[in-house]
Design brief:
mainly beta; 36% strand; Jelly Rolls; seven-stranded mixed β-sheet; binds fe (ii) ion; Purple Acid Phosphatase, chain A, domain 2; 2 domains
């Protein structure tokens, strides 16, 4: 299970970026470890903060002190409270009367008692007298003083988080619930626990640029989860927990009546997207299989991805508060130019958001997800960042390797067997449909056409109730539907076609499948059942 999120720079770092650097901070006069080259003439204030812990061996009665070289003025906060101020009136962006001061020597000031083992945060804002000043210095160290001697708490040259060229958000002087070097170094921590357990476990996170935006995409990969278990997780941002949210792992064995929802072509308007996402949550599925054209960002619009994620996070929630996990395939609107290119698909760099968000897909946009030995999902890239024929061999291999799994679904974006609103993907008919038939895939979910369709079970395009493959789609989760040609029944492989926004709910029963076409208000407008065909009906 992977958890992904995107954080905007302006949620986190209003007007500037918190970074990590060694003290002191400044420019001019060659006394700075972190040189702020852009400061002169551009901005006059720098903000730094760091967690501290008074060593347990500090004697009673010890005093915390700051040793500082500063040019020109500063305000020091301990655990969110101002405890020391030199040479400035006001604070933050509304300072006045900064007095000139040179950082020639270390100066020491008491900043309150130092209790052994005490943890907290030191935050300092440093201000220059003049934006064009020839130098600036903010170089602190923190010690405790006992019996006339100094003992280090934050050493000279230690790393501090610093914000240069922007104004910090409210509460920047307080970062509660954290300690040690880690707190200074990480903007985010991810923690989770099995529901009912006390200890939060932390998982390493990965971060990368979110497309070409200033935003970052983050992932935490959770291994070692117990099946059929409820977990909660939270994201700790600068020491402040956000969440918690809940998810549930799939059962290790088949359970009669388990279900999932599927569909694609999601974000036409936010109202449509929200409505269908709410429906997806209410149906309480194990997961959602999403078949491309997710945010309609066309590889260029990061804001649409943020909206899409926001909607899913808020709306696709089960009645008991569980988030619905998604399994996603790529569509043309994930890619620059948003063309269907079965033979000349561009590289992954043309789908920057899709790949930076769902970075676990090292193989590309084709993937398999296996649930114990009772269900497998296969996703393929229908000519968006990979050519159709280039995936045929892989597809044959992964299907062939899963012959023993009694339930199997394939999902991709571009329909091979559509309702006639656009041309059919003949490359897929030729390359992939024979494999679906050979390996008895239960249902293939297609998208892209903004209609509802259900085919008969078909082999080579001809109805075959016994051996045929069912194709369902065609992608109208949250988009304006297209008009279906009146003579759609001439396409003899079609069993049903409607211009309706919908999702498809699939219920897995012990010896059959139930497929339901459902609108956002939960109305079932079409349904069918198919028997379990892959081997004997059994309890797997
Ligand atoms: Fe599409």
């Amino acid at each position: 299970m992977s958890i992904h999120w995107v954080a905007a720079s302006n949620d986190e770092r209003p007007g500037g970026e918190w970074k990590l650097g060694a003290a002191g901070f400044g420019y001019g006069d060659d006394d700075d470890q972190t040189v702020l080259k852009a400061m002169r003439g551009k901005y006059r204030s720098v903000y730094i903060r760091r967690a501290y812990e008074v060593p347990a061996k500090a004697p009673r009665g010890a005093e915390l002190t700051v040793g500082i070289r500063y040019d020109d003025a500063f305000i020091l906060y301990r655990d969110g409270k101002e405890v020391l101020r030199k040479g400035v009136e006001g604070a933050g962006a509304s300072i006045s009367k900064v007095k000139k001061h040179e950082a020639e020597v270390w100066e020491y000031f008491k900043i309150g008692p130092a209790d052994p083992g005490q943890k907290g945060v030191i935050a300092i804002e440093g201000h220059n007298e003049n934006i064009d000043s020839s130098d600036f210095t903010l170089r602190p160290r923190i010690d405790y003083r006992a019996n006339g001697k100094l003992y280090p708490v934050i050493r000279e040259g230690a790393s501090w988080a610093y914000l240069a060229g922007g104004a910090p958000g409210a509460g920047w002087t307080r970062i509660g619930g954290i300690g040690g070097d880690e707190a200074a170094a990480t903007r985010y921590k991810f923690s989770y626990r099995k529901k009912g357990e006390r200890e939060w476990l932390s998982a390493p996170i990965r971060e990368r640029k979110f497309g070409k935006t200033e935003d970052l995409a983050f992932s935490a990969d959770l291994g070692d989860l117990k099946p059929a278990s409820r977990y909660e997780f939270r994201i700790v941002r600068w020491g402040r927990p956000v969440g918690p949210w809940e998810f549930e792992t799939a059962p290790a064995r088949f359970q009669d009546g388990m279900s999932f929802v599927t569909g694609g072509d999601m974000y036409g308007t936010r109202a449509w997207l929200d409505a269908m996402n709410l429906r997806a949550g209410k149906e309480d599925p194990l997961f959602a299989l999403l078949g491309g054209d997710l945010a309609y960002a066309n590889g260029t619009n990061g804001g649409r991805w943020r909206d899409w994620l926001d909607s899913w996070n808020k709306c696709a929630v089960a009645p008991d508060g569980r988030l619905i996990p998604m399994v996603v395939a790529i569509g043309n609107h994930e890619v620059k130019g948003y063309q269907y290119r079965p033979k000349n698909a561009p590289g992954r760099e043309d789908a920057p958001f899709f790949y930076s968000l769902f970075s676990g897909k090292s193989e590309g946009a084709n993937f398999t997800v296996d649930f114990g030995d009772y269900l497998s999902l296969v996703g393929v890239d229908s000519g968006h960042t990979a050519n159709i024929a280039a995936q045929t061999q892989w597809l044959g291999r992964v299907l062939g390797n899963r012959l023993g799994i009694p339930r199997q679904f394939v999902c991709y974006h571009r329909p091979a067997w559509g309702t006639g609103v656009k041309a059919d993907a003949t490359d897929i008919r030729r390359e992939w449909s024979p494999l679906f038939e050979q390996f008895k895939v239960d249902c293939v979910f297609e998208n892209d056409h903004h209609t509802y369709k259900r085919t008969h079970p078909i082999v080579g395009g001809e109805r075959s109730d016994k051996d045929g493959i069912l194709y369902m789609g065609d992608g109208s989760w949250g988009v304006k539907t297209r008009n279906i040609p009146k003579d759609w029944k001439k396409r003899t492989y079609l069993a049903e076609a409607q211009a309706l926004r919908h999702l498809i709910k699939v219920t897995l029963k012990r010896d059959e499948f139930l497929y339901e076409g459902m609108t956002e208000d939960g109305k079932i407008f079409d349904k069918t059942t198919r028997p379990l065909r892959r081997g004997e009906a059994d309890t797997r």
